[in-house]
């Protein structure tokens, strides 16, 4: 979404970058080296469909190769263009640095409306796009590793992985050429939910520190907080589901393509998702009130606003009317640079995209490691862990028998304690640790330096320092 008189998405990212860099003391020239996109490749290819040749335009932008492989999703949307993939690639660089995923930043996109094609047609198009990228090493386990993004998912990643394997029949690490694959094609448990799960973990960490809660003029915990989510795609759906089911938050608004749903009581996220699958939109959903002008719901009263759809949805035209004291950017770039300034002046706290949605690439990192190590996480230690826990349980059981009515183990304790961690538990634990640690590094800056007045600047500072350090280590 672009609004008149506002910079483009890439310019908006650059403006935010510049704000942070102004507070740093980088060697001359390094700032520009980090900011600019190294290369953007445009590929145009034809696919024979329905009796004629259709020409498609795709991009893969490489923002920074201070670490390789470079990493970032592939988006399928009619809105894809060079400016957008470059902005998204830049965000990938900062995101990976912030959460210590050892990658440079990249992003790809194909200008297509996937809903207009049959599955077998999408497969042909995806395989051809993958071929064009792979033959230029823009898909490669040690150079460039794509992942899902808007409009793509496990299915497309499986096609890409298979296409790469066909072109590189002796590469033992071929599966690591792309992440976000289905479990049966080399994927990892917990990747689909990862970005939404990361949003949940980010909010949990925010509510662990009173200073942060105070900054937003809030109190208490996630329990009972009224949440509006924009976009019930993979990220928005999982974030809203986990927050309502596990943290007691109330989903009071859901904004979708065809309008929005609002309700005093928490909306059943799964029921809405099922409704969308069946009816193509939220209109007519029985459990809430339908609002035709969906975007207006961004301005409704709530505690937490989660934009989880497109970039630029909070912009100069609506920023001053946003009431939420806390915004968490589950999408990439949902707040323009101009809107960011207005919101900062109002005292709105924004948990920035490069941190808030980093759960996806974090679990992609785990998947890539799994593919390179050729073994599922937890396979070696799970039963050993269970056997050791059994020893403790046996001892406690002896105590329980001895003490009779005076003491006994809590119900379910045995069963819970006995269970060794499988891959899903390990992935969630690694993700939680990553989200906490990265948040803490931003928090330290936010509260520790008077010149840092917002979390976005703090996030940029932490990540630019890391990127700069790796350039220095390379002798640049
Ligand atoms: N597309 C996601 C993002 O914007 C995931 C990228 C990845 O897993 O490499 O962060």
Automatic annotation (TrEMBL):
UniProt keyword list: NAD, Nucleotide-binding, Oxidoreductase
CDD domains recorded: NAD_bind_1_Glu_DH
Site label Important for catalysis, positions: 149
Stretches assigned to coiled coil: none
Residue positions of the active site: 107 (proton donor)
GO molecular function (one): glutamate dehydrogenase (NAD+) activity
Ranges of residues in domain Glutamate/phenylalanine/leucine/valine/L-tryptophan dehydrogenase C-terminal: 188-475
Organism superkingdom: Bacteria
Binding-site positions, NAD(+): 195, 234
Biological processes, Gene Ontology terms: L-glutamate catabolic process
Binding sites annotated in the UniProt record for substrate: 71, 95, 364
Pfam families: ELFV_dehydrog (PF00208), ELFV_dehydrog_N (PF02812)
Family: Belongs to the Glu/Leu/Phe/Val dehydrogenases family.
Protein name: Glutamate dehydrogenase
